[in-house]
Amino acid sequence: MLKGRKLKLLLGMVAGGYIIKTPEPYDLIEKGLILPLSHQLPPEFSHKCALWMIKLKIPPRNDLYKPNMLRTTVFGMHFDNPIGLAAGFDKDCEAVSGLQRLGFGFIEVGSVTPLPQAGNEQPRLFRLLEDKAIINRYGFPSKGADVAAKNLSPWSIPFVRVQVEQVPDFDQFKQFVKDKEFNTPPPPLGQKEISQGYEKTFQVKSKFFQNFIERYLLPSTCKVGINLGINKTTNNPTNDYCVGIEKLGEFSDYIVINVSSPNTPGLRDLQRKSQLEKMLRHISRRVKNKNKAYKNTACRAFLLKISPDLSDEYLKEVIEVVMNPSFGVGGIIVSNTTISRPDSLVNSNKSERGGLSGPPVKNLSTEMIKKVYRLTDGTIPIIGCGGVSSAEDAYEKIRAGASLIQLYTGLVYNGVGLVRRMKTDLCKLVGRDGFINVQMAVGADVPDVSNKTFQDIFLNVLKNFTDHSSNYQKRFEKFHRSFIQLPPSPLLGSVLEPPKSGFNDESSSNNNGDSSVEENDKDNPLPEDD
User: Fold this and answer.
1) Which one of the listed residues 260, 261, 365, 403 is annotated catalytic?
2) Residue 261 known to be catalytic
3) Which of these, 48, 113, 403, 400, lies nearest to 261 by C-alpha position?
């Protein structure tokens, strides 16, 4: 229990979080007070406190910064940025709306099991402070799929899964809030539009009310994935996954089949080819039915999460199954925690049983990403996970072949402000290497994979820009979205002109650089198809 000074500090931390509405001052409090204090608490209790703070929306909002350079399209979905939260932080989907506001492009909740279970005995979570790592042997503690579905339902506080491709008028959103009609959740409005709309409707000219809207009511475009696990006592793992899909699929943008946790007996055996084929055949059918029932607005892909400890032989077998189109696997998450222990570990907890995560796993995970990228010839999207604690770590995995990346342990040692800092630094890294979008950096360090020509990648990026800009152009004609010109790219040879269909004609005609851009395009044409 907290006593005396520590209790006062915790109360002050909560109060300060509510008062401070901008990220920079909060970062100072987080680094100077919140993180040092949390590291003095038992690890699992500290985890619960962090989840509680995010659920109450104490950290300031960080998801309104959406640079075009980081927008990416994976699994047929638009992501504001490629940085995501790995599964394990919010196991029972309690703080989805709070997590969506932290600046992630997507979050993954779970692992959720069909029936409630307590998991392994405590203690089961260990910090390795000197190594900035964590060892856990949770064993899928879960309140069950029914509780998770209730937490994800809108009646339990504002979780709204929205589609960035659509923008409604304010009256639609107001009616949605009033009647709580969540069968067809509306997409997000811009910050100014929603604030002005509320002011006009309720005749309130208050900065406080605008801040209240921004903090609590403005929906997020952050995608939501649900990680599914199995009960420890189950005799039918396939059925456990199918139950999770039936109960939770409607709340997800994608589903993850977790067959790689080292803390559930027999789970990693499901990665064997014969068992994997049999299981995925049933799961694929359930996912397709759920997606069809919700007209392609839910459960749009299912992914497989694999272990970093797979041998090359078993990895090839897994990839053969994933590459089979009849199973419908949309992507791979590389990777889960490892049972190996690098010699570099120095903390006394290094001998604890369980899965290791954090910087010691970074190289192991990155090398496996490269292997998977080569084996799939870059045709299957990869989510890179393991040891990400900075923009440099994320960019390394992207260049190794990951289309998206996830982090978790990095938040324990760097705080929630890490996400905002990573987005800023990632833009600098992408621009430094001459790319106009992060998608163009995927697999850049694996030159022997040539499944996509540069023209294919560029056209995909261009389509992403066109989809976003033309969509907003139709619905908000008053918005003039400027195209940020970057330094000349060594790949393109010049700054590219944005697609005219997605931008205001008047503003584009007044651009003094149009003629030079057209001339440069003629001098540097895109490579033709072979």
Assistant:
1) 261
2) yes
3) 113
